[in-house]
Amino acid sequence: xxxxxGAEVAGYLVVRRLTAAATVAVGGGRPHLALxxxxxxxxxxxxxxxxxxxxxxxxxxAHRRGRGHxxxxxxxxxxPRRWRSLxxxxxxxxAMVGSAAGQISVEIELEQQQFLPGEPLPVAxxxxxxxGQPLRLGEDNDWxxxxxxxQGNRVVRQxxxxxxxxxxxxxSSQRATRRLDVAPYFxxxxxxxxxxxxxxxxxxxxxxxxxxxxxxxxxxxxxxxxREFGVPAAEPGAPPVMRKYILQEANYLKRNLRLYLRITxxxxxxxxxxxxxxxxxxFANPQPQLDGDSNLHLLFQNGRTTCAYYVxxxxxxxxxxxxxxxxxxxxxxxxxxxxxxxxxxxxVRRYAPTDxxxxxxxxxxxxxxxxxxxxxxx
Length: 378
Prior knowledge:
This protein has helices at about 1-25, 60-65, 80-100; strands spanning about 45, 45-50, 105-110, 115, 120-130, 135, 145-150, 170, 175-180, 190-200, 205-210, 215-220, 220-230, 240-250, 255-265, 270-280, 285-290, 295-300, 305-310, 320-325, 335, 340-345, 350. The radius of gyration is 33 Å and the shape is elongated. It has three helices and 23 strands. The protein folds into three domains: about 1-100, no CATH class; about 105-220, Immunoglobulin-like (Sandwich); about 220-230 and about 240-350, no CATH class.
């Protein structure tokens, strides 16, 4: 069978490398650097050595005697049975250990390689089972771990336990993907280059399998606009809770400009939310506007003839997401209606599957009206 042939080859090669050490252990004498190979025709690990693999010849007996080393005979077909058994056992053990390294394959995939501090950092951990038997995973919170290092091999502090619990069975020759956002669980506040690895622990085998490292960058974007605002306190009569909206522009991979919204406290020491809003053209500035409920209305051009319109609540939840088309002589812009509500005027709305709230059947209602938020008491 193919696996047996592979094991025999691995055992044969490892035995050839360990022969010198085993010779000292069995025959005694002072250690020396000479490598001793089995005689041609000796059967090792189910294979017959035909002398096809080059090895470094051992020093001649006369040379060894001149240096004061004991001469060790080369084992052949008449060697003691314990010597041949030792070589066979070492070869089989080495083959089993070598094959174990390929039983589980672990990989990390990132959707992008650059992130702002506090931005969601979605990770896909792909696990492939090559063990020939089903694996039971996810039965505790320790089966999957993530480690991150910064520049100079600095270990990034973990802020909490990753939510990886969830039992499942991974059949042989199958692959499973575990997705999670690691940003809330690590202190990724410094700008620089980072390296991430995933570790899968198989408790029944007392083994760990580690993924190759994946690199990413924490960057700082250019600040375009900011505004402090108040949120009503939970207790009646208490002063409002102050927060800050910050619009930032990041040059993703030096090719695409992307717009982000950060929501922080006034001192910007606490990041409450970071929202990636999508691409933005370099020749047009975004139009932000707050309404009476401290919701942020934002209109920006994201394509040659299209604009994106968002309404974002103070907690960072997206209430409205729409696409508007630029027409000749009519460009979308934010304005106020007679009731003081923020509205989009100009251009024409394009209905899309990504709309929030969702559009029905992809066709506009009879009187869609602008997405607005009325001030209190209006």
